[in-house]
Specification:
Elements (H helix, E strand, L loop, with lengths): L1 E10 L5 H12 L2 E6 L5 E7 L1 H13 L6 E9 L9 E3 L2
Parallel strand pairs: 2-5
Antiparallel strand pairs: 1-3, 1-4, 2-3
Helix pairs in contact: 1-2
Length: 91
């Protein structure tokens, strides 16, 4: 089980990015959150089995929606948290 925090910059707000990440995470069975940040980036926390989380991160880096343009993805490892077995879009 791993927990990663991502900060994604580029054209990632107003293009369905959070919704696409939400759909991918739910399909993968990953727990966590996704939210827009005031600086125009999107912040994600993914928690789950290592291989599944790494596959999800690769999909996010590739741009989960054709309208997004990813400039940079910063990844930090986090501690295991209780997300109540869900993945949520937060504000």
């Amino acid at each position: 089980m791993v927990n990663y925090h991502l900060k994604i910059s580029g054209r990632v707000q107003g293009v369905g990015f959070r919704w696409s990440v939400y759909q991918l995470a739910r399909q993968a069975g990953v727990e966590g959150i996704v939210m827009n940040k005031n600086d125009g980036s999107v912040y994600c926390e993914f928690q789950g089995p290592t291989a599944i989380v790494n596959e999800l991160i690769a999909k996010v880096k590739a741009g989960p929606t054709p309208y997004a343009k990813i400039n940079e993805v910063k990844i930090k490892q986090g501690g295991i948290k209780n997300y109540h077995h869900s993945f949520q879009i937060t504000h």
